[in-house]
Amino acid sequence: MAKKKRKYRKLERSLPVMRPNAGGIDIGATEIFVAVPADRDTESVRSFPTFTQDLHALADWLQQCRVDTVAMESTGVYWIPLFQILEARGIEVHLVNAQHVHHVPGRKSDVLDCQWLQYLHSVGLLRASFRPEHAVCEIRSLMRHRENLVQMACVHVQHMQKSLDQMNLQIHHVISDITGVTGLAIVDAIVAGNTNPKELAKLRDHRIKASIETVTKSLVGDYRPEHIFTLKQSLTAYRHYQKLIADCDQEVQQRVEAFQSNDDGPTAAADSSSATSPTVPSFDLHSHLERIFGVDLTAIPGFDVLRIQTIFSELGADMSPFPTDDTFCSWLNVCPKDGTSAGRRIRTPKVKTKNRVTQAFRMAALSLHNNKSYLGDYYRSQRARHGALKATKNAAHKLARIFYHLVKTRQPYDETVFAKLEARNQKHRLHKLQTLARQMGYSLVQANA
User: Fold this and answer.
1) Can you give the pTM of this predicted structure?
2) Does residue 289 share a domain with residue 222?
3) Which residues does 309 contact at the CB level (< 8 Å), separation at least 6?
């Protein structure tokens, strides 16, 4: 007897409207399409050019249609001018990830992007991307620009090294940094016309580990005028970008000093002597970050001043958008995936992210490789068990939880809280070693102190 087919009730496609005053905006380089609810205007979809006057006309039309919230995709940097204008008008702007919009099923082919955005936003199916406060956005723009300047300066350092290689000068292999005191002094002398290896070697700083004989040998080469010319231009370009970086540091310093901490603590005094690396801003950034966060985050293993500055410029000091450390780790994409379904292990696709905060936590996790602390031991044990990739993610996850806890509670980092965990791990390792020895027919004997 054939089994009767079970009947299912068809699902209703119409969803309840949660935001009746929602609009949708599709942003392009030269034209913007805007959709509002159909009952607000006879022409519910309009297009606007991207000139500033037209952006203000767009905002006026939205206010005439009583639209108080809009959704737009984060397309390049084209959304920034319109976002700022709408935000100044008091219109709530939801910046959404384009991938999240495309993954929502049920779209018809004859619907414009702005109409689809308006519908999804009105029924509450879009999640706004995180965007820090305005003061943090200013610092973020400057720090991203500074990072580009540092990369451009590094390119010209490579050009300098190439010119030295073409002349068979091995000085950049003998000293650790060609842009240090000794390196720049020697390069300046070469472009000035001094090609005597012995005289150039006298410019060696006393802190250089290589002997003066080795430095002299590394400066014997074929000083061709065309290579000296390219070396001179590369040196000039490098110093030009160093000046631009210094100017950018001054802009960052002004905004960091003006940034108010949560407890309105005193402003730290600037001190240019605290910078130890060309990549670190030339003012006392450590004191300002401690004032803003209310705790010294550089005490966490793996974190230095520049890494904390990267996190601050992208995230800010306010963790209220993340109610728990779970949501923070999920936003960073460092939380472990539940690879089980119906009791079976399944493969989950790897989610790629360009989040700069995530990259900072991953770099901090990588630096734990030789760290003599509990976190260093944790990274090494995870690497031995799961490999380098999973160990980096697991350590970044633990660092993110520690970071979130310190910023939320403003408690200083205390390594002693891991003492119990370390004792438990030590006991576990001893038990494992005793079991292995017993299986092989041996017994462990404690050595006398």
Assistant:
1) 0.81
2) no
3) 143, 281, 285, 289
